[in-house]
Amino acid sequence: EAVVEKLFEWLEDCEDWSGPLSEIVGDIVSALREPLLPVAESADHARIAALLFHSCAPVADLAADWLLLHRQPVTALPAEILSRLLRDEDPTVCAVGIKLFGALPDAVLLQQPELFASFCVSAHTAVRQSAIPVLERLAHEVAPESESFSEFCTQLLPFLLDGLFRGESGEGVHADLLALLRGPLARATNALDAATVRRLLLARSKGAQQLGASLLPAFPAMAFPVRDWAAFACHALIDVRRWAQEAYRENAAAIEVDAKAMEEALRIFDSRWDDSQEFARAFFSARGTWTPALLVALCDHSNAAVEAFGRDLIRERTTLENIAGYLLKLAQHPSVKIQGLVSDWLEMELEGDLEELQGELEEPEGEGAAGEGQGEDNVEMLYSLRPYFLSVLSQVNRARTVKNRVLAFLRRRALRSPRAAAIVAEIFARQVVTVALADKAQYLEGLLAIRARYPELETLLTLEPVPRYADPSNRYADQCANRAGAPMQGMPS
What DSSP line would sit under 103-166, residue for residue? Predict the structure, then answer.
């Protein structure tokens, strides 16, 4: 008793500058637990409680340990003392309060999920480290499957997840939250649904992403829509990207037969990670079901490598039956690069490769209409491309290169058959009255060439005879005389 009394006096007189105190606190607590326990557990309870608010932090912490050894339970402390400790702005004092708070009966603790949440997301390490052991004890001593603990976790979890979604209020907050969610609260965490896992993975917080990545393997691919697979393939964490790539492999057939799924799956090309880009090129190179809209979307991608991949796919899959669809779709995306692709096609594909595919021969000079029966398929294709040609030729102050190539292409095609000439004449007749003067001459030349080659066609072009004058120097006088009804000079009356 004398030792304990002296200990009381020494602790009460400790000053803030008592540096050695923090080094011997552990020894004092050990002494109270062993040789001094019979006296310590029956010491003046109120006197010990007063030490909780000592100006020296180690003394307050030792007082909390002493109270936990006392015969009187923590519930014997006045409520205002515990409340004052927990609300204290000093994290070391608050940590002392949490140590005592954790000794309350389990039934009381399980009714305080919000208070626990405030401890767990605190910016102060001392506060968090005091709360974690209490939660660990509850998880081990209270049956995890019990209704009370399950309800406690259900109410606590949203607060902890919210702390993960937010930026760290202090160093180590997310690490401590992850340790709780993966440790004592793992049962509740593993019950999160796919929508929450998606939110975690796509959050800006790295802590939230890490938790989502640890939960993702438990879900089948079909728990998420295809667009999420693509989003996961763009993720910074490689484990998430690998999960997404495996989802593509396992469901390749389902993607290929569904146009909407195929469209969403192409979003994998938005990834900035090389492994996802390489996987995407290999995966989609093996796919056989493509629509013009999907391939054109690749050609219109902001990533130059993806755009080049799209052009290669189109060249590989271009046939006489679908070339019109590609060009018409490309007309709706008139970027400089896309127009350059169209120009290349007009020069290379339409004038070269397509002629080989359909076996069309160039018509020899002077044979007139001898080849009129050839190239009927080509005429049908030409007709189907009318909206595209009109779209390109109607652009003002842009796409000059492709406009010139389109004009040259149409003028050459117009001289191959009367049907082709009629289609081109209709296009030129429409454009000649709507475009700038710079292009008007080319349309007029084209219409004249068509009229000369096929005089029987209606080209909406009227040729006016040039008037002849007897004396060009008197041209003005002759015009005046004509208006007055007088005979022209040099002409019979």
Answer: TS-HHHHTT-HHHHHHHHT-S-HHHHHHHHHHHHHHHHHS-TTSHHHHHHHHHHHHHHHHHHHS
Report pLDDT digits (tens) over 245-276. Answer: 999 999 999 998 888 999 999 999 999 999 99
Q: How far apart are CA 198 and CA 53, in angstroms?
A: 46
Nearest partner of 299 among 333, 262, 267, 276, judged by Cα: 333
As a whole number of angstroms, the distance between CA 200 and CA 194 comes to: 10
**Residue 29 has which token pair?**
């607590």
Angle between helix 173-182 and helix 147-165 axes, rounded to 10 deg:
150
Give the residue among 123, 207, 126 at the shortest CA–CA distance from 162: 207
Q: What are 376-404's pLDDT values in tens digits?
A: 556 877 787 787 788 778 877 776 777 88
Distance from chain centroid for Cα 268: 9
Distance CA 180, CA 135 (A): 8
What is the residue type of 249? Answer: R
The answer to whether 94 touches 62, Cβ cutoff 8 Å, is no
DSSP string covering 296-316, please?
Answer: HHHHT-SSHHHHHHHHHHHHH
For all residues of the chain together, what is the average pLDDT? Answer: 79
Structure tokens that stand for 340 in this block: 């350059």
Contact 268, 230 (CB under 8 A): yes
